[in-house]
Write a structure and sequence with these properties.
Layout lengths: L7 E5 L7 H15 L1 H11 L2 E7 L2 E7 L4 H4 L5 H6 L15 E4 L3 E5 L9 E5 L7 H15 L3 E6 L12 E6 L13 E7 L2 E8 L2 E8 L2 H16 L19 E8 L2 E8 L22 H4 L2 E4 L2 H6 L2 H11 L3 H10 L1
Parallel strand pairs: 1-4, 3-14
Antiparallel strand pairs: 2-3, 4-5, 5-6, 6-8, 7-8, 7-12, 9-10, 10-11, 11-13, 12-13
Protein backbone atom coordinates (compact mmCIF):
# COMPACT_ATOMS: atom_id res chain seq x y z
CA UNK A 1 0.00 0.00 0.00
CA UNK A 2 1.39 3.40 -0.99
CA UNK A 3 1.30 6.25 1.51
CA UNK A 4 0.96 9.92 0.65
CA UNK A 5 4.35 10.60 2.25
CA UNK A 6 6.13 8.37 -0.27
CA UNK A 7 5.46 10.80 -3.18
CA UNK A 8 5.53 8.10 -5.85
CA UNK A 9 7.09 8.72 -9.27
CA UNK A 10 6.72 5.15 -10.58
CA UNK A 11 6.42 1.51 -9.56
CA UNK A 12 8.86 -1.29 -10.36
CA UNK A 13 8.04 -4.92 -9.71
CA UNK A 14 10.13 -6.58 -12.43
CA UNK A 15 7.16 -7.43 -14.62
CA UNK A 16 7.28 -4.46 -16.97
CA UNK A 17 9.67 -4.19 -19.91
CA UNK A 18 11.20 -0.91 -18.73
CA UNK A 19 14.54 -1.46 -16.98
CA UNK A 20 15.11 -0.18 -13.47
CA UNK A 21 18.19 1.75 -14.59
CA UNK A 22 16.22 3.55 -17.32
CA UNK A 23 13.40 4.33 -14.91
CA UNK A 24 15.88 5.67 -12.35
CA UNK A 25 17.57 7.90 -14.92
CA UNK A 26 14.16 9.29 -15.84
CA UNK A 27 13.50 9.96 -12.16
CA UNK A 28 16.85 11.76 -11.86
CA UNK A 29 16.16 13.99 -14.86
CA UNK A 30 12.70 14.83 -13.56
CA UNK A 31 13.93 15.53 -10.03
CA UNK A 32 16.65 17.92 -11.19
CA UNK A 33 13.95 20.13 -12.73
CA UNK A 34 11.79 20.40 -9.59
CA UNK A 35 14.17 19.86 -6.65
CA UNK A 36 16.73 22.69 -6.33
CA UNK A 37 18.79 20.91 -3.67
CA UNK A 38 19.39 17.96 -5.98
CA UNK A 39 20.39 20.19 -8.90
CA UNK A 40 22.73 22.08 -6.57
CA UNK A 41 24.28 18.78 -5.49
CA UNK A 42 25.03 17.83 -9.08
CA UNK A 43 26.30 21.32 -9.87
CA UNK A 44 28.73 21.00 -6.96
CA UNK A 45 29.78 17.57 -8.18
CA UNK A 46 30.79 19.09 -11.52
CA UNK A 47 33.50 21.11 -9.74
CA UNK A 48 35.01 18.19 -7.83
CA UNK A 49 38.74 17.53 -7.99
CA UNK A 50 40.16 14.05 -8.63
CA UNK A 51 43.64 12.56 -8.87
CA UNK A 52 45.13 9.08 -8.77
CA UNK A 53 47.42 8.05 -5.92
CA UNK A 54 49.51 4.86 -5.92
CA UNK A 55 51.01 3.25 -2.82
CA UNK A 56 52.65 -0.03 -3.81
CA UNK A 57 49.89 -2.50 -4.67
CA UNK A 58 47.26 -0.08 -3.41
CA UNK A 59 45.95 2.41 -5.97
CA UNK A 60 43.04 4.78 -5.39
CA UNK A 61 41.38 7.82 -6.89
CA UNK A 62 41.20 10.76 -4.51
CA UNK A 63 38.14 12.98 -4.77
CA UNK A 64 37.75 16.41 -3.19
CA UNK A 65 34.00 16.85 -2.70
CA UNK A 66 33.10 19.50 -0.07
CA UNK A 67 29.38 18.66 0.02
CA UNK A 68 30.19 15.18 1.38
CA UNK A 69 31.09 16.72 4.74
CA UNK A 70 27.50 15.83 5.72
CA UNK A 71 28.35 12.13 5.53
CA UNK A 72 32.06 12.20 6.41
CA UNK A 73 31.47 14.17 9.58
CA UNK A 74 28.23 12.43 10.58
CA UNK A 75 27.86 11.76 14.30
CA UNK A 76 26.73 8.13 14.56
CA UNK A 77 26.71 8.00 18.34
CA UNK A 78 23.38 6.41 19.37
CA UNK A 79 22.38 9.51 21.34
CA UNK A 80 22.98 11.80 18.38
CA UNK A 81 21.12 9.48 16.00
CA UNK A 82 18.09 9.25 18.26
CA UNK A 83 18.03 13.02 18.74
CA UNK A 84 17.88 13.93 15.04
CA UNK A 85 15.02 13.39 12.56
CA UNK A 86 15.68 10.46 10.23
CA UNK A 87 16.32 11.96 6.81
CA UNK A 88 15.27 8.74 5.04
CA UNK A 89 11.77 8.61 6.55
CA UNK A 90 9.03 10.00 4.28
CA UNK A 91 7.87 12.55 6.85
CA UNK A 92 11.34 14.15 6.97
CA UNK A 93 12.35 14.04 3.30
CA UNK A 94 12.13 17.20 1.16
CA UNK A 95 8.68 17.85 -0.28
CA UNK A 96 10.07 17.76 -3.82
CA UNK A 97 11.73 14.36 -3.42
CA UNK A 98 9.94 11.58 -5.30
CA UNK A 99 10.56 7.83 -5.33
CA UNK A 100 10.29 4.66 -7.37
CA UNK A 101 8.57 1.94 -5.39
CA UNK A 102 10.82 -1.12 -5.66
CA UNK A 103 9.04 -4.46 -5.05
CA UNK A 104 6.85 -2.67 -2.48
CA UNK A 105 9.10 -2.60 0.64
CA UNK A 106 11.77 -0.27 -0.81
CA UNK A 107 12.01 3.16 -2.44
CA UNK A 108 14.60 4.24 -5.02
CA UNK A 109 15.58 7.86 -4.30
CA UNK A 110 17.99 10.34 -5.88
CA UNK A 111 20.86 11.12 -3.52
CA UNK A 112 21.09 14.93 -3.08
CA UNK A 113 24.78 14.69 -2.12
CA UNK A 114 26.14 12.57 -4.98
CA UNK A 115 29.65 11.16 -5.02
CA UNK A 116 29.40 10.41 -8.74
CA UNK A 117 26.82 11.16 -11.44
CA UNK A 118 23.83 8.80 -11.20
CA UNK A 119 23.94 8.15 -7.46
CA UNK A 120 20.81 6.59 -5.92
CA UNK A 121 19.74 5.54 -2.43
CA UNK A 122 17.38 2.59 -1.93
CA UNK A 123 15.65 2.96 1.43
CA UNK A 124 13.17 0.72 3.24
CA UNK A 125 9.77 2.32 3.56
CA UNK A 126 9.73 1.57 7.29
CA UNK A 127 12.11 2.96 9.88
CA UNK A 128 14.20 -0.06 10.87
CA UNK A 129 17.92 -0.49 11.69
CA UNK A 130 20.62 -1.05 9.09
CA UNK A 131 21.10 -4.83 8.90
CA UNK A 132 22.75 -6.86 6.17
CA UNK A 133 21.04 -10.07 7.27
CA UNK A 134 17.58 -8.66 6.58
CA UNK A 135 18.47 -7.06 3.23
CA UNK A 136 20.76 -9.66 1.61
CA UNK A 137 18.25 -11.15 -0.88
CA UNK A 138 17.20 -7.65 -1.95
CA UNK A 139 20.87 -6.68 -2.25
CA UNK A 140 21.38 -9.35 -4.92
CA UNK A 141 18.04 -8.79 -6.64
CA UNK A 142 18.70 -5.07 -6.91
CA UNK A 143 22.08 -5.72 -8.59
CA UNK A 144 20.38 -7.91 -11.18
CA UNK A 145 17.61 -5.37 -11.81
CA UNK A 146 20.13 -2.52 -12.20
CA UNK A 147 22.62 -4.43 -14.36
CA UNK A 148 24.73 -4.15 -16.43
CA UNK A 149 26.07 -0.68 -15.64
CA UNK A 150 25.46 -0.30 -11.90
CA UNK A 151 26.75 -1.74 -8.63
CA UNK A 152 24.87 -1.87 -5.34
CA UNK A 153 26.64 -1.12 -2.07
CA UNK A 154 25.97 -1.69 1.60
CA UNK A 155 27.61 0.20 4.45
CA UNK A 156 27.48 -1.41 7.87
CA UNK A 157 26.07 0.64 10.78
CA UNK A 158 29.60 1.19 12.11
CA UNK A 159 31.35 1.17 8.73
CA UNK A 160 30.23 4.23 6.84
CA UNK A 161 26.43 4.33 7.07
CA UNK A 162 25.42 7.89 7.95
CA UNK A 163 21.89 6.62 8.73
CA UNK A 164 22.52 3.42 10.74
CA UNK A 165 18.99 3.64 12.11
CA UNK A 166 17.28 3.29 8.70
CA UNK A 167 17.80 0.29 6.42
CA UNK A 168 19.17 1.36 3.06
CA UNK A 169 21.45 0.50 0.14
CA UNK A 170 23.09 2.71 -2.49
CA UNK A 171 23.48 2.33 -6.26
CA UNK A 172 26.08 3.94 -8.51
CA UNK A 173 27.87 3.21 -11.79
CA UNK A 174 30.24 0.25 -11.62
CA UNK A 175 32.79 2.19 -13.68
CA UNK A 176 33.19 4.71 -10.84
CA UNK A 177 34.65 2.18 -8.36
CA UNK A 178 38.26 1.19 -9.17
CA UNK A 179 38.21 -2.11 -7.25
CA UNK A 180 35.28 -3.34 -9.35
CA UNK A 181 37.15 -2.73 -12.59
CA UNK A 182 40.53 -4.22 -11.78
CA UNK A 183 41.70 -7.50 -13.25
CA UNK A 184 41.78 -10.72 -11.32
CA UNK A 185 45.27 -10.13 -10.04
CA UNK A 186 45.85 -10.83 -6.33
CA UNK A 187 42.78 -13.10 -6.26
CA UNK A 188 43.34 -16.39 -4.47
CA UNK A 189 40.55 -18.99 -4.55
CA UNK A 190 40.00 -20.40 -1.06
CA UNK A 191 36.64 -22.19 -1.25
CA UNK A 192 34.43 -23.81 -3.88
CA UNK A 193 31.08 -24.89 -2.41
CA UNK A 194 27.60 -25.41 -3.91
CA UNK A 195 28.78 -23.86 -7.17
CA UNK A 196 29.95 -20.70 -5.36
CA UNK A 197 33.57 -19.54 -5.42
CA UNK A 198 35.18 -17.60 -2.59
CA UNK A 199 38.39 -15.66 -3.19
CA UNK A 200 40.53 -13.50 -0.96
CA UNK A 201 42.15 -10.36 -2.35
CA UNK A 202 45.06 -8.54 -0.73
CA UNK A 203 46.20 -5.16 -2.06
CA UNK A 204 48.95 -4.23 0.35
CA UNK A 205 47.07 -3.31 3.53
CA UNK A 206 43.53 -3.48 2.07
CA UNK A 207 41.88 -6.89 2.31
CA UNK A 208 38.71 -8.16 0.66
CA UNK A 209 36.71 -11.33 0.03
CA UNK A 210 35.02 -11.96 -3.31
CA UNK A 211 32.03 -14.29 -3.70
CA UNK A 212 31.00 -15.37 -7.21
CA UNK A 213 28.23 -17.62 -8.44
CA UNK A 214 24.99 -18.11 -10.35
CA UNK A 215 22.62 -19.17 -7.55
CA UNK A 216 21.45 -16.29 -5.39
CA UNK A 217 20.32 -18.47 -2.49
CA UNK A 218 23.71 -20.17 -2.28
CA UNK A 219 25.50 -16.80 -2.34
CA UNK A 220 23.25 -15.52 0.45
CA UNK A 221 23.96 -18.68 2.48
CA UNK A 222 27.74 -18.33 2.07
CA UNK A 223 27.72 -14.63 2.98
CA UNK A 224 25.74 -15.41 6.12
CA UNK A 225 28.34 -18.05 7.01
CA UNK A 226 31.05 -15.45 6.48
CA UNK A 227 29.24 -13.01 8.77
CA UNK A 228 29.04 -15.63 11.52
CA UNK A 229 32.74 -16.38 11.06
CA UNK A 230 33.58 -12.68 11.16
CA UNK A 231 31.74 -12.24 14.44
CA UNK A 232 34.22 -14.59 16.09
CA UNK A 233 37.28 -12.85 14.64
CA UNK A 234 36.64 -9.10 14.38
CA UNK A 235 36.55 -6.53 17.17
CA UNK A 236 32.90 -6.03 18.04
CA UNK A 237 31.32 -2.56 17.75
CA UNK A 238 28.03 -3.73 19.28
CA UNK A 239 28.49 -2.05 22.65
CA UNK A 240 28.16 1.43 21.13
CA UNK A 241 25.12 0.41 19.11
CA UNK A 242 23.29 -1.60 21.74
CA UNK A 243 20.34 0.81 21.73
CA UNK A 244 19.97 0.25 17.97
CA UNK A 245 20.17 -3.54 18.38
CA UNK A 246 22.96 -3.88 15.85
CA UNK A 247 24.91 -7.14 16.06
CA UNK A 248 26.66 -7.52 12.72
CA UNK A 249 30.44 -7.28 12.30
CA UNK A 250 32.00 -4.25 10.66
CA UNK A 251 31.91 -4.55 6.87
CA UNK A 252 31.22 -2.97 3.50
CA UNK A 253 29.95 -4.76 0.41
CA UNK A 254 29.46 -4.24 -3.31
CA UNK A 255 27.29 -6.42 -5.52
CA UNK A 256 27.14 -6.49 -9.30
CA UNK A 257 25.55 -8.84 -11.80
CA UNK A 258 26.46 -9.76 -15.35
CA UNK A 259 26.50 -12.70 -17.74
CA UNK A 260 24.28 -14.67 -15.40
CA UNK A 261 26.59 -14.36 -12.38
CA UNK A 262 26.70 -12.31 -9.21
CA UNK A 263 29.91 -10.88 -7.80
CA UNK A 264 29.89 -9.73 -4.18
CA UNK A 265 33.00 -7.94 -2.91
CA UNK A 266 33.16 -7.82 0.88
CA UNK A 267 35.55 -5.63 2.87
CA UNK A 268 35.83 -6.81 6.50
CA UNK A 269 36.63 -3.85 8.73
CA UNK A 270 38.71 -3.40 11.85
CA UNK A 271 37.65 0.15 12.60
CA UNK A 272 35.25 2.78 11.31
CA UNK A 273 37.67 5.72 11.11
CA UNK A 274 41.48 5.98 10.98
CA UNK A 275 43.64 7.53 13.71
CA UNK A 276 44.11 10.70 11.67
CA UNK A 277 40.36 11.46 11.79
CA UNK A 278 40.56 12.03 15.56
CA UNK A 279 43.67 14.22 15.54
CA UNK A 280 43.49 17.99 15.79
CA UNK A 281 44.84 20.90 13.82
CA UNK A 282 47.18 20.24 10.92
CA UNK A 283 47.48 16.54 11.85
CA UNK A 284 43.81 15.80 11.24
CA UNK A 285 42.61 14.06 8.08
CA UNK A 286 38.86 14.29 7.71
CA UNK A 287 38.32 10.92 6.05
CA UNK A 288 35.70 8.38 7.09
CA UNK A 289 35.84 5.32 4.82
CA UNK A 290 32.68 3.63 3.64
CA UNK A 291 32.21 1.18 0.78
CA UNK A 292 33.07 3.74 -1.92
CA UNK A 293 36.36 4.58 -0.20
CA UNK A 294 37.24 0.92 0.42
CA UNK A 295 36.50 0.35 -3.27
CA UNK A 296 39.21 2.80 -4.23
CA UNK A 297 37.42 6.15 -4.56
CA UNK A 298 38.57 8.01 -1.45
CA UNK A 299 36.29 10.98 -0.77
CA UNK A 300 37.75 14.00 1.03
CA UNK A 301 35.50 16.98 1.80
CA UNK A 302 38.42 19.32 2.57
CA UNK A 303 40.87 20.41 -0.10
CA UNK A 304 43.68 20.71 2.45
CA UNK A 305 43.43 16.95 3.02
CA UNK A 306 43.16 16.26 -0.71
CA UNK A 307 46.29 18.30 -1.41
CA UNK A 308 48.52 16.75 1.25
CA UNK A 309 47.48 13.11 1.14
CA UNK A 310 50.46 11.03 0.02
CA UNK A 311 51.31 7.32 -0.27
CA UNK A 312 52.38 6.96 3.37
CA UNK A 313 49.21 8.59 4.72
CA UNK A 314 47.08 6.51 2.35
CA UNK A 315 48.66 3.27 3.54
CA UNK A 316 48.10 4.28 7.18
CA UNK A 317 44.41 5.05 6.56
CA UNK A 318 43.74 1.61 5.09
CA UNK A 319 45.92 -0.12 7.67
CA UNK A 320 43.87 1.48 10.45
CA UNK A 321 40.47 0.44 9.09
CA UNK A 322 41.13 -2.86 7.26
CA UNK A 323 41.25 -6.31 8.75
CA UNK A 324 44.68 -7.94 8.45
CA UNK A 325 45.36 -10.98 6.28
CA UNK A 326 45.79 -13.31 9.26
CA UNK A 327 42.28 -12.46 10.42
CA UNK A 328 40.94 -12.97 6.90
CA UNK A 329 42.45 -16.46 6.89
CA UNK A 330 40.79 -17.20 10.25
CA UNK A 331 37.43 -16.11 8.84
CA UNK A 332 37.82 -18.38 5.82
CA UNK A 333 38.88 -21.29 8.02
CA UNK A 334 35.75 -20.84 10.17
CA UNK A 335 33.30 -21.00 7.24
Amino acid sequence: MESAGDRIYALFDGRKKASLSALSLALLASQKMVWPQLQAGYDALDSRLERRLDAGELAVVLQCNPQRIVSTGADIDPGAIQARPCFLCPANRPAAQQAIVYHRPFLVLCNPFPIVPRHFTVAHREHRPQSLHSVLPTFLQLARDFHPDYAVLYNGPQSGASAPDHLHLQVLPTAAIPALNEGRGNLIKVIEIDGISLFKKIDGVRTALLVEGTEAKNIVALIRKLIRAMQSVQPSPTERLASLQQVEPMLNLFCLYGEGRWRVMLFPRRRHRPDAYYKSGADQLLVSPGAVDMGGLLVLPRQVDYDRLDAALLMKIFQDVSLDETSIDKIVAAV
